Each structure stands twice: as C-alpha cells, then as structure tokens.
C-alpha cells in the first residue's frame, strides 16, 4: 500500500494585537478575542483579523510542522 504524507504541528498558543490563538496538532487554528467572555460560546459569519496575524500564523505553521508517513488505510476519507 502507498503511504501518504501528513503534517503534524507542535501545539502552540500566543497573542497578537489582542487576538489569542491556539495551533492544534492537525494544523487547525482557534482564534479568540480578549473581549469575549470565556464561559460563552460565540459563532461568527465574518471574522476580521490583521494581515500581520495571517503571516505570523503561516510562519509558525511552517516552522512547527513535522512530516509523518501514514498508511493509506489510516487516512480518514
């Protein structure tokens, strides 16, 4: 069977211009604003973030990724 390349990232978090971020192992990013109450869940149709945060996150994702080779049968479709 063929092996498929999968990127795994180091869990990381930080803050940029009042926006907190968490990078998960699968590369997903969670953004939170400081003015939100921690016990309430918010859902947005539109989110505005500075371009500098996009570039910062892209650089961090590239720097923290590791390649893992997995069997094709292990990949969720």
Please give a structural write-up.
- By secondary structure, this protein is of the alpha+beta class.
- It has one domain.
- Helices cover 18% and strands 38% of the residues.
- The protein contains 1 helix and 5 strands, in the order E-E-E-E-H-E.
- The strands form 2 sheets. Strands 2-3-4 form a 3-stranded antiparallel beta sheet, covered by helices on one side. A two-stranded antiparallel ribbon has the order 1-5.
- A hairpin with a 5-residue loop joins strand 3 and strand 4.
- The radius of gyration is 16 Å and the shape is elongated.
Any low-confidence stretches, pLDDT <50, length ≥5?
A: none
Helix content: 10-25%
Number of helices: 1
Q: What sort of overall outline do the alpha carbons produce when their principal axes are compared?
A: elongated
Radius of gyration, taken over Cα atoms and rounded to an integer in Å? 16 Å
Q: Which class do the helix and strand fractions yield?
A: alpha+beta
Domain unit count: 1
N-C termini distance:
16 Å
Percent of residues in beta strands?
35-45%
Give the spatial strand order of the biggest sheet: 2-3-4
The beta-strand count equals: 5
Q: Note the run of SSEs as H and E.
A: EEEEHE
Can you summarize this structure?
The chain is α+β, with helices and mostly antiparallel strands and 77 residues long. Helices cover 18% and strands 38% of the residues. The mean pLDDT is 85.
What's the SSE blueprint?
Blueprint: E1 3-9, E2 12-16, E3 19-23, E4 29-33, H1 51-64, E5 65-71
Antiparallel strand pairs: 1-5, 2-3, 3-4
């Amino acid at each position: 069977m063929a092996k498929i390349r999968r990127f795994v990232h180091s869990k990381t978090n930080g803050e940029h211009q009042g926006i907190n971020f968490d990078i998960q192992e699968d590369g997903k990013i969670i953004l939170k604003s400081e003015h939100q109450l921690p016990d309430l869940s918010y859902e947005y149709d539109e989110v505005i973030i500075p371009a500098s945060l996009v570039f910062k996150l892209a650089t961090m994702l590239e720097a923290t990724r590791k390649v893992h080779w997995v069997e094709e049968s292990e990949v969720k479709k």
